[in-house]
Amino acid sequence: MLVFVSLPALAKQELKIATSITTSSQRAAFYNLVRAFENDHPDSKITITSYTSEIYKAKFPQMLIANQFDILYWHAGERLFEYIEQNKVSPINDILSAKKMASIFDKVIIDSISFEQRAYALPISYYQLGFYYYKPLFSKLGLTEPNTWDEFILVCETLKQNNVTPIFIGTQSNWPATAWFDYLNLRLNGIEFHRSLVQGKASYLDKRIYDVLDKLKDLSKEEYFIQDHQDLDWKQGLPLLFRGLTGMSMLGNYAIQNMPVKIKDRIGFFKFPMFNDQTTYYEEAPLDVLILPITSKHSKLAKSFIRYVAKSAIQEKFNTRLGTLSPHKGAQQNNSSLVQEAYNTIANAKGTTQFFDRDSKQDYADQIMPLIDEFMLTLNINDSQKALEKVRIALFSSQPSNKY
Q1: For residue 337, what pLDDT is reported?
Q2: For 44-83, b where at least 16 C-beta lie within 10 A, e where not — what string?
Q3: Residue 84 CB partners (closer than 8 Å, separation 6+)
Q4: Nearest Cα residue to 194 out of 177, 209, 207
Q5: Could you please report the per-residue DSSP string of 270-337?
Q6: SS3 per residue for 65-104
Q7: How far apart are CA 238 and CA 131, in angstroms?
Q8: Which residues contact 192 (CB under 8 A, 6 or more apart)?
Q9: How far apart, in whole angstroms, are the C-alpha atoms of residue 214 and residue 192?
Q10: What is the dihedral of CA 147, 153, 154, 158, to 10 degrees?
Q11: Which residues lie below 8 Å from residue 380, measured CB to CB, with a gap of 6+?
């Protein structure tokens, strides 16, 4: 656990914030944010208590009710809504009106933090997943950014024929295989079916899940994924990408901060390919937020902090340090070309989801995601469907599956 405390000379009001900090860039972003607020509010004192990601998530339910913190860092989507339904989170409509919200955030962002027409969180940062590739390699082989799945497969085949591994994926990390599963499900089956699935309402025995797994199986059988991906994590693909030894890698735009400055201009970006002449699409955009627990002791100062962090200039500085996207529409002026492309992809999406483990109950995601990793090794569709459905039935036995 890391605790750092500000020490203004004549602090009269104290605000206690808890957050998840895993990297030095996160530490710098939050540290500079609270220091800037204190400079603008010299009668305030802010104490930040931070934990690494997994510890923070484990402690979060208790922190909501401990009568200890005034502001908490958290995630949008189902992970937020479940605590709203338990009446543990205060709405923030009195801080930022619906009109104000609409002027600074896109609708897909507002939908991710709203419940029964009230906003309950301040969006502060998010990232978008898509494909990053090495421009000189594509140029050398005469390749262009694919928009459709057929074009994507053609790119993969061309790379393979030129002895370049088409796709890096590191399934030793606990999310890449599920990210592929999520995107294929969104593209092939739409957002309503995907939401039903992550909420435990749709059956994994559905033919549409077979289609998703079949696409993953095809990519693996054609040897488009890097070999031994189960022994690699996502970061290990970056050097290979920078040297043109792999063609593409599906990553969140947070990866940009891990790219050397001299390399960034050589990296291109395109969104996950679309199927069957689709003109609308849905994206994954995990959104981080600040919330006010219902037990906050210093709500007036907490609300001042929320208003402060909602400013475009503050959000821009915060996300620049993190290497992520600012959800504020007015905080995009100084984006790099890669960040701007990611932002435009989200802004033009018809809707967004958070990611499987943020859109579903934790015990559900904790059991489903390893099974998707396992499928990437066995490629046995029928057995995997049965194993996935067994988990769903065990957790949601009283909840009938949706019929479409």
Answers
A1: 78
A2: bbbbbbbbeeeebbebbeebbeeebbbbbbbbbbbbbbeb
A3: 115, 120
A4: 209
A5: EPPPB-TT----EEE--EEEEE-BTT-S-HHHHHHHHHHHTSHHHHHHHHHHHTSB-SBTTS-TT--H
A6: HCCCCCEEEEECCHHHHHHHHCCCECCCCCCCCHHHHHHH
A7: 12
A8: none
A9: 21
A10: 120
A11: none
Other beta carbons within 10 angstroms of residue 162's beta carbon come to: 13
**368, 369, 371, 376 alpha-carbon torsion, rounded to 10°:** 150
Q: Which helix (H) or strand (E) holds 267?
A: strand 267-270
* Cα–Cα distances in angstroms (integers) from residue 345 to residues 108, 160, 280, in the given order: 12, 28, 11
Distance CA(57)–CA(63), nearest Å, equals 10
- Provide the pLDDT for residue 331: 84
The tens digit of pLDDT for each residue in 109-160 reads: 898 899 998 999 999 998 888 999 999 999 999 999 999 999 999 999 999 9
Matching residue, tokens 């530490």: 27
* Structure tokens belonging to residue 359: 């859109």
Beta bridge partners of 74: 289
Which parts of the chain sit beneath pLDDT 50?
7, 11, 403-404
Instruction: Extract the tokens encoding 126.
Output: 């998010």
Q: What pLDDT score does 3 carry? A: 58
Place of tokens 């802004």: 347
CA–CA separation, 180 and 130 (whole Å): 10
| Burial group, residue 93, by CB count within 10 angstroms (0-12, 13-18, 19+) | middle
Return the sign of the alpha-carbon dihedral for residues 333, 339, 343, 345. Answer: positive
SS3 state of residue 353: strand
Residue in the structure block whose two tokens are 């200039």:
313
Q: Do the Cβ atoms of 338 and 67 come closer than 8 Å?
A: no
Amino acid letter at 191?
I
What's the pLDDT at 344? 85
Q: Which domains does the chain have, with CATH numbers?
A: 2-127+287-353 (3.40.190.10), 129-284+361-395 (3.40.190.10)
**Which tokens belong to 29?**
């972003």
277, exposed or middle or buried, with CB in 10 Å at 0-12, 13-18, 19+?
A: exposed
